[in-house]
Amino acid sequence: MRVMSAGDGYKYLLRTVAAGDGKRSLSTPLTRYYNAEGTPPGRWLGAGVHGLGSGELKAGDEVTEAQLQLLVGMGRDPITGAPLGRAYPAYHSLDERIRERVTQLEPQLSLPEKARAIAQIETEEAARKTRRAVAGYDFTFSIPKSASVLWGVADAGTQALIVEAHHAAVAEMVAYMEREVAATRTGATAGDGPVAQVDVAGLIATAYDHFDSHAGDPHLHTHVVISNKVQTVLDGKWRSLDGRPLHAATVALSELHEAVFADHLTRLFGVEWEARSRGRDRNPAW
Question: Which residues, including other chains, have CB under 8 Å from residue 55's CB and lie 6 or more apart?
Fold first, then answer.
């Protein structure tokens, strides 16, 4: 899982995830990239998609670049452009924080004193993490390497069935996340006020299939980019996902995806699986 920040995260999404595992120039339209590279366009996933616009979007529909810019880049409805709850908060950069503190220094300081004070400010601010608004979460679901090799050398019909098994497993993971993991928080915003973790109407996600690794090896995997915007079941308001359960479930989701995919592939072809040791302190691979 990779946390995507507002602004920079949208650029990362367009350069890599939406266009395959290689960087593309942002001056190149995605439609042209798809035609040139053979990379399939993204598709919508998640029960939360139905809450966008007037309900005209549905899971499986193609994702456009304009829709991505509205949802991930701006936190807006990809159909109507209306804000989905509060705008992404803006936080000061490192340079802005330093400048703000330097302007507050006492004007009567001597040049050596001012230089020492500025050096201290720069050290303190560099040690602080720069806060960034979260726009979404990029989950990567990969099939086992041996299955990717089978997919890479198989005939077209067999390849299609392997992809179908992978897609089915990914869809089950999104449904599982909606049922067991996804939630938002509501309540007091001050220090120690009461906060409740509440259910959401579903996830808004986009999925992108990639076919190889950075090294060019067969590596069938799907990036599932989950928007941070969710609609609260309790009152219908748009809020942000609670990120803590997502972080905690990352390994479990990866393992579950591989297990579900293995079940699908076994039903399709009757393949068998065996555990391979990966050394100390690592789980075996199937």
Answer: none
